[in-house]
From TrEMBL:
The lineage of its organism: Archaea, Methanobacteriati, Methanobacteriota, Stenosarchaea group, Halobacteria. Keywords: NADP, Oxidoreductase. Gene3D superfamilies: Dihydrodipicolinate Reductase, domain 2, NAD(P)-binding Rossmann-like Domain. Its EC number is 1.2.1.11. It comes from the Archaea. This is Aspartate-semialdehyde dehydrogenase. Residues 3-130 form the Semialdehyde dehydrogenase NAD-binding domain. One of its GO terms (biological process) is methionine biosynthetic process. The active site is at C149 (acyl-thioester intermediate), H241 (proton acceptor). PANTHER family: ASPARTATE-SEMIALDEHYDE DEHYDROGENASE. Belongs to the aspartate-semialdehyde dehydrogenase family. It comes from Halosegnis marinus. SMART domains: Semialdhyde_dh. GO terms for molecular function: aspartate-semialdehyde dehydrogenase activity.
Length: 343
């Protein structure tokens, strides 16, 4: 068993991490951190628990500690980070420098050239960027990121289409309110409404997808050459980001060929990777957030509604934003780090 810690354990993503890690076949929760206001309190008192299962009994009494190297035991080599990005930017490098391996969900440093941005089923080879990171920064530990939840939803489907030579992608999202955190969007803002603005989200989808599908030559990652244009919208669903994608490829691809490429796209041999990575629906009105977000325990991506357009194909895809798009993505990256010998 690898003893692990969770940074930002009292937050929405932190609570999902606890749900996914207790129990886990390879990991044992040994440290929980949060802000100085929560430090020193037992977890059940520090966290306003809102997850849809009780706090695991052996987690409830763990004392929350500050998010700093001195507060985290040395025999906890792997940390899952779900900190606000401004806090992550400050503290994650100090933890990596102190020897901890950090699998982070926060958005800071995702596009740094020496920080691997990884979806294990898509670009596991990018983990080796950590060698460059250690050389350049002199760290004993490491910092690895998972992408933004909207990016994670779309990118596996693009990876499957890339065998036809992706040239340009346009995407419009319908994103669940949980992506903004528990108090991110008020009920008065979102009920009977849709909000066509999520700060910074379009830019993240446009850049992170090109890094994920980029090639790594052992020294640096070259971004994929496709053009990506995104438009991001918040709608009143609780969980599950639905996305409408238009893709143009160098070689002509029919809707049936696109669906077959996605259905055949392999999963990864890791405990949290679903047996079927991309589920393809034949029904034109699927996937739908409420019906399909929990496929593969919330770790599968689904796609459907394939049709030809004048210059390519159009389809829809979906993933659970706080599981596959956040906490589950970090856990999967932690499993890959162990598998590859970085922990
Ligand atoms: N919600 C989602 O679906 C997604 C979120 N993310 C990203 O994950 C991260 C966490 O999001 P979320 O869980 O929603 O956020 P929350 O606001 O719910 O939780 C934030 C966590 O960070 C802790 N924290 C806040 N300030 C500090 C500080 N100064 N020092 C140490 N710890 C601190 C909080 O502790 P305390 O309780 O003590 O304040 C809490 O544990 C963010 O970067 C977010 O952008 C990414 C994808 C999806
Ligand atoms: N912005 C995403 C959630 C999020 O926090 O993304 P990031 O990990 O890039 O900060 C959403 O609103 O659904």
């Amino acid at each position: 068993m690898v003893r692990i810690g969770i940074l930002g354990a009292t937050g929405a993503v932190g609570q999902r991490l606890i749900q996914l890690l207790d129990p886990h076949p390879d990991f044992e929760i040994a440290a929980l951190t949060a802000s100085p206001d929560s430090a020193g309190k037992p977890y059940r008192q520090a966290a306003k628990w809102r997850a849809d299962s009780p706090i695991p009994a052996n987690v409830a009494d763990i004392e929350v500690v500050e998010t700093a190297p001195a507060a985290i035991p040395d025999d906890v080599p792997l940390l899952f980070s779900s900190l606000p990005s401004s806090v992550g930017a400050e503290v994650e490098p100090t933890l990596a420098e102190a020897g901890y391996v950090v699998s982070s969900n926060s958005s800071n440093a995702r596009m740094d050239p020496d920080v691997p941005l990884v979806i294990p089923e898509v670009n596991p080879d990018h983990v080796d960027v950590l060698e460059v990171q250690r050389d350049e920064r002199g760290w004993d530990g490491a910092l690895l990121k998972n992408p933004n939840c909207s990016t994670i939803t779309m990118t596996p489907t693009l990876a499957a289409l890339d065998e036809f030579g992706l040239e340009s992608v346009t995407v419009a999202t319908l994103q669940a309110v949980s992506g903004a955190g528990y108090s991110g969007v008020t009920s008065m803002e979102i009920i009977d409404n849709a909000v066509p603005h999520i700060g910074g989200e379009e830019r993240k989808m446009e850049s992170e997808s090109r890094k994920l599908l980029g090639s790594f030559d052992g020294a640096e990652i070259e971004l994929h050459g496709m053009d990506v244009a995104a438009s991001c919208n918040r709608i009143p669903t609780l969980d599950g980001h639905l996305e409408n994608v238009w893709a143009e490829t160098r070689e002509t691809v029919t809707p049936d060929e696109a669906a077959a490429a996605m259905a055949a796209y392999p999963s990864a041999p890791l405990p949290s990777s679903p047996e079927e990575f991309i589920h393809v629906f034949e029904e034109p009105d699927r996937p739908q957030p409420r019906l399909d977000r929990n496929l593969g325990n919330g770790m599968a991506v689904s796609a459907g509604g394939f049709r030809a357009t004048s210059d390519g194909i159009q389809y829809n895809c979906l993933a659970h934003n706080t599981i596959r798009g956040a906490a589950g993505a970090s856990v999967l990256n932690g499993e890959l780090l162990v598998e590859e010998g970085w922990v």
